[in-house]
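Shipment paperwork, digital attachment
Item: protein structure file
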Amino acid sequence: MKKTSLHLQTLILSTILGLVETFPAFITIIEYFIKSKFKKFDGIPTYDFYVINK
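Attachment content:
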């Protein structure tokens, strides 16, 4: 009985932990698509990062 309860606890907690860890990335992807859909312009696109050539 104890082994079964530990397996169920692990299954439930790992699912919750996985959702908590991936939530910020999920929200970021949604924000990116919403911003790109409503923010249309004809100028030079600006990015949050820069590529440095060495």
